[in-house]
Design goal:
Keywords (chains A, B): DNA damage, DNA recombination, DNA repair, Metal-binding, Zinc, Zinc-finger
Shape of chain A: elongated
Zinc finger (C4-type) (chains A, B): 57-72
Largest interface: A-B, 60 and 61 residues
Order of helices and strands of chain A: HHHEEHEHEHEHEHE
Structural class of chain A: alpha/beta
CATH architecture of the largest domain in chain A: 3-Layer(aba) Sandwich
Mean pLDDT of chain A: 90
GO biological process, one term (chains A, B): DNA recombination
InterPro entries (chains A, B): DNA_Rcmb_RecR, Rcmb_RecR, Rcmb_RecR_Znf, TOPRIM_dom, TOPRIM_RecR
Domain Toprim (chains A, B): 80-175
Bound molecules: zinc ion
Oligomer: homodimer
Chain lengths: 198, 198
């Protein structure tokens, strides 16, 4: 291959994206350079801005460039419900199912002692503070039905129990071992309405 | 959906890439922001550099940040052969088939009078200059076997004829209507060796 250094480096960098191999990366690089430089500039600007400004909501740990995200600051959301999920993608999936109107808490990970991921690494100290909210009545555990997801849910269930709050586990219609992120809206809707006490 | 403006804008911008829909764009955005910020910075830097520096080789019109690309400046390439292709992706495909050692000319398009794309828009004035090279003996037409690709090949064949040079059309083993870019190396190798005079 005799592509120029800048084009070669661009193709290599585009492979940082999940699901994009060298062949797709090359097609994307040629497309942006040949046919859509404006799109390429939009991408550069949006990515640069997001990398420099997007962090985690100090209240729910969702990805946001704001100190407090829109869901946390909205007065329309039900403050008696708190749904704990592993990732921002899970929040996005639940929001697009339009079957949940409570608050969220995003772990951005799961407990994994072997990998050195303990309670503070997934923000459970921040969650502890959230559990002291007087309006809160029920915590819905929506971690993934994997070994580590279940262990994380059990750990949080103990924290919730100490605060004498209701605690439920989302009812998974999705296959065990699957990922919440990829469930369709109707499955997610059933999973929420079929939740049972822990 | 309640994603923050910066994250929403990033997802929208990532959809500029061919083959990337909103769902994939969201997965990529979350991945880069949550798990691979270094990869995101590599992408931003590489894309910004490429957009600002990569243009077309003044000799063959291939994508490059150099004035003259590596293939054109290499003394190892056979200057008696000139292969005319529609896009940089076609050059990449032919190079990885390792069955061609001559020079290239990249049209970056094809004749399309209805879309207002005439000879100068695909660099045929630059090609005219290339045809005056004393070392050149044969022009290989490797435009795609589409209606516009064939019309472009016919037009260039007339230019080559006036210069009294040999002119051949690449032998396509690929299905008519298909794209050169996606042919495998062995198909491309056969197509090159089976070329016939126009
Ligand atoms: Zn928040
Ligand atoms: Zn060149």
């Amino acid at each position: 291959m005799n592509l120029s250094p800048a084009v070669t480096e661009l193709i290599r960098a585009l492979c940082c994206m999940p699901g994009i191999g060298p062949k797709s990366a090359q097609r994307i690089a040629f497309h942006l350079l040949e046919r859509d430089r404006h799109g390429g500039e939009l991408m550069t600007d949006a990515l640069k801005f997001a990398l420099e400004n997007v962090g985690h909501c100090s209240c729910c740990r969702m990805l946001t460039e704001q100190d407090i995200c829109d869901v946390c600051s909205s007065e329309k959301r039900d403050s008696s419900l708190l749904c704990v999920v592993e990732s921002p993608a899970d929040v996005a999936a639940l929001e697009s199912s339009a079957s949940y109107s409570g608050r969220y808490f995003v772990l951005n990970g799961r407990l994994s002692p072997l990998d050195g991921i303990g309670p503070e690494d997934i923000g459970l100290d921040v969650l502890q503070t959230r559990l002291q909210d007087d309006q809160l009545k029920e915590v819905i555990l929506a971690t993934n039905p994997t070994l580590e997801g279940e262990a994380t849910a059990s750990y949080i269930a103990m924290m919730v129990e100490k605060r004498a709050l209701a605690c439920s586990r989302i009812a998974y219609g999705v296959s065990v071992g699957g990922e919440l992120e990829y469930a369709d809206g109707s499955t997610l809707s059933h999973a929420l309405s079929g939740r049972r006490p822990v």
